[in-house]
Amino acid sequence: MGLRPLGHRTEADLIGPRIVATLKLGFLAWAAIELLQGDWGDAAALVAMFLVLLVPRLLRLPWVFDGAFVVAWTLQALGQVAGFWGAISWWDTLVHAALPAVLAPTALILLTRLHALPDPFAGDEGAGTSLAIVLMVFMVAGSFGALYEIYEWFMDSTFGTHYQPSNSDTMTDITANAVGGVVGGIWLAGWSAWRRKGGGADSSLATPS
């Protein structure tokens, strides 16, 4: 039995989005479990993460961004709620790399749509266009990473928190953030190149899907 076309999409095309949508709802189910156990803070954090997972749909990005968001924020949830940060020494570094790898490309697309940055996705398929995308994502990731480290320093200096236990911890986070920015840039450049080749006449990610 063949697949029934759904407009220009088939049922097979919808399998991935349906799986991702189910995984998103898992955050709400997890939040309900935490709430039943009396962990209001963790429940609120999971609901907040669920709301963040809606961003790709609000921006009308390709569903692969939804999948990337689910992966990155699952790592964050496992660290923050499930205790992986304390149980696995390198988990914090992993999260510091994973989040900018997803958030920086998304931020670049949003800034492009707001005309705050030139559209790097409308160029030709040459190496120059891909390099521009990688560099722009890297710079966005680096900027947000630096601002976050300034926030941690401010909190430690003003309120006596311990977000930055040592210079080594800070530099490890900055390095992981930079690596995540490069990975996210390469991923976005590759996705954009693939989209330009087979994505139709209007293949710029600066245009909502």
How would you portray this structure in words?
With 209 residues, the chain is mainly α. The protein has 2 domains: 1-88; 90-209, no CATH class. Helix content is 71%, strand content 2%. It has helices spanning 15-36, 40-52, 55-58, 63-80, 84-87, 91-113, 127-159, 167-198; strands at residues 5-6, 9-10. It is globular, with a radius of gyration of 19 Å. 27% of the residues are buried. Residues 1-7 have low confidence and may be disordered.
Question: What attributes does this structure have?
Answer:
single chain; 209 residues; mainly alpha; 2 domains; two-stranded antiparallel sheet; 8 helices; 2% strand
Number of domains: 2
Low-confidence stretches: 1-7
The whole-angstrom Rg is: 19 Å
- β-strand percent reads under 5%
What topology, given as strand order, has the largest sheet? 1-2
Q: Separation of termini? A: 30 Å
Give the % helix.
Answer: over 70%
How many distinct beta strands?
2
